[in-house]
Amino acid sequence: MNENLKFIQGNEFCVEAALYAGLDFYAGYPITPSTEILEHMAKRLPEIGGKFLQMEDEIASLCAIIGASLTGHKVMTATSGPGFSLMQEALGYAIMAEIPCVIVDVQRGGSSTGIPTHVGQGDVMQARWGTHGDHAIIVMTASNHQDVFAITVDAFNLAETYRTPVILLFDEVVGHMRERIFIPAKGEIPLVERLRTSVKKGVDFHPYLPREDGRLPISDFGEAHRYNVTGMVHDMWGFPSDNPKIAYGLVRHLVDKIENNTDKIARYKEYYLEDARTILISYGSAARSALHVVENRRSRGESLGLLELQTLWPFPYSLVQEKCADAKYVVVVEMNAGQVLQSVKICVDRPERVFLANRIDGVFITPTDIRNILRLIEGKGV
Amino acid sequence: MAIKDYIRERFFPHIWCPGCGHGMVLNGLLRAIEKIGLDKNEIVMVSGIGCSARISGYVDFHTLHSIHGRALSFATGIKMSRPELKLIVPMGDGDALAIGGNHFIHAARRNMDMTAIIINNRIYGMTGGQHSPLSGYGTMSATSPYSNIDNDFDVVELSVAAGASFVGRTTTYHTKQMTDILGQAIIHKGFSVVEIMSQCPTYFGRKNRLGSAIDMLEGFRKNTTPIGSKAKQKDPDLIERGIFVRKKMPEYCDEYDKIIKRAMKGN
Hints:
Shape of chain A: globular
CATH superfamily of chain B: Thiamin diphosphate (ThDP)-binding fold, Pyr/PP domains
Low-confidence stretches of chain A: none
Order of helices and strands of chain A: EHEHEHEHHEEHEHEHEEHHEEHEEHEHEH
Oligomer: heterodimer
Shape of chain B: globular
Strand content of chain A: 15-25%
CATH topology of the largest domain in chain A: Rossmann fold
Helix content of chain B: 25-40%
CATH class of chain B: Alpha Beta
CATH architecture of the largest domain in chain A: 3-Layer(aba) Sandwich
Radius of gyration of chain A: 21 Å
Largest interface: A-B, 43 and 39 residues
Helix content of chain A: 25-40%
Mean pLDDT of chain A: 96
Radius of gyration of chain B: 18 Å
Number of helices of chain B: 11
Distance between the termini of chain A: 47 Å
CATH class of the largest domain in chain A: Alpha Beta
Number of strands of chain A: 16
Structural class of chain B: alpha/beta
């Protein structure tokens, strides 16, 4: 048997993907259903000479990895909804100070403490707008383990490319389910390394003066250039400023560097969309049930298709509009009260044709749940 | 190296009020660093939010002006990922012990090599004079207009109980002692805490009728005494100054290196 072939949980595979991407520093705090990530990191990191910290809470965990990122390391933390709520201030800091890091949120059911051992997808909007103030953010997800691997590596690459936090919005089903997986060979997936400044020692280095392409070369803490990093609105030196021109330029830079690259950041999969009259739009584990319905109906000759989103933010509005242009019905399949539904309604030509197939009770959405909604839409009754 | 070589003159004048103790702490700290002979490039200063946190902007080290209460968490990540760097973390009393209290006790317990400086002016200055966990019973502030009923912490006792391997206390009046204790704290291998009693004439002083900055400094002279002095036996209300704890304990990064060795061996 191939030694790269394994049968493991999504959480564990996410750890292997992070290590593949070059992660060597992790800090976290136990929380269901993400704890396996913490546990595997504790075991795996020292084996490769990396560093692992169990901190006193999720706030400290995110702050610690931001600190480690500044010294030049690829870093990650993982949590679930309640812990992700605690991280929001430090998340905004990483956005403002442009410090690459990856944050995994393995979503549970419900709000507040919710149903920790059950599934949900209710953190889509928290991931987008949980931290205060104008900002852009990259949020990605996956529906199966092989994609968890690819998307996790991708998240590290995007974090480096755009010098920003990237959120991996997984869910309890993907995190805990065991699936056969294959670890890609070294080099099979290209890795993006940190862009470091070429400014020589002794020459003025402007840590927050973006290049023409919007990218911002960094100098690691401890290396030749000493500069200030702050969460306040700052000038090209990284020093706090309340100059309106500087504030405007900074907010525009932070938003534009991501929003203007929406097409480049958009990851998705499509199934049978060419002639689809009814299009399901789904993501994460819910997309598994959606795909089952689509394949089942296709086998009976019905023209259903699935658009599986892997990048949720920046939301690929033009992609969704284009793919749904000829659809009679669009059905968003998700395990929340309609968080991606709103974005889909904004961008399709006929929002009145957009419907929701969902569950909000902590129970995994089944193909039957989706079929029942389809029958209602088609006027066939349940 | 001259003191001015350690500062970023570009960003002066500083934002502190006339009479504020923060500049005196900055001065004492830079003198301590100069005395030890540390290279600017090996020092990382991490601060939180508040008047005290602005110190980091003015010094020519690697500086991180982070978020309120979390400076020690950021510092922990930096130190763990690059143990050869020297971490200095100046905090205000509210920053370190109200919003940051949990991080403070856990940092002390972990004993990672860094120096936490708690500049204790007993008030939230940046927001306009609200009481802090160190204001103490009976003090006046913008949020205790009828007198404060919150009891305060003893920073030294708290630090000792939490496991800090170096604990010292001094005041802005005792500038030579300040430089000396800060220097020893920075040299100490492990988590060191230095409480520096400092004056905020603008808010704490004014609200509590303590007079000018000079009057407040005079108060530090009168109300404090070296550890174990005879004066303390006569007047137990005097606050002791000096080094309370200095002990050798396993340092966290060193201990983690042993974990790496064990993991690499496969047991």
